[in-house]
Amino acid sequence: MADHIKLRAATGTYSIRAAGAVLGESSNVIELSEGDHALVLYVPRADLAMAFFEQTDTKTTCPHKGEASYFTLHAKSGPIEDAAWSYETPKEGLERIAGHLAFYPEKVTVEAV
Which domain of life is it from (predicted)? Predict the structure, then answer.
């Protein structure tokens, strides 16, 4: 794992919402800090209503984390394209974020309750 990436268990319970709907609630969120980048919260898929998410063909590669897959959120108001991403098989040292989704804050709200 890159020295500038840190993982830690987030404290408390988080609500995940978008387009007026609650998508999940979790007490098992992982915080990922990477250098000067904004903190990213990774939420276990088991704590989300995954029926509303569809994996897309979008892929990006991070030299430190690996290849990211993206998900469109199908909301009542319409699809929110590539609202979330996941590292299906993250690089060594980051295995804890596998099976989790992270979200673009302008598309999905993840906040402590």
Answer: Bacteria
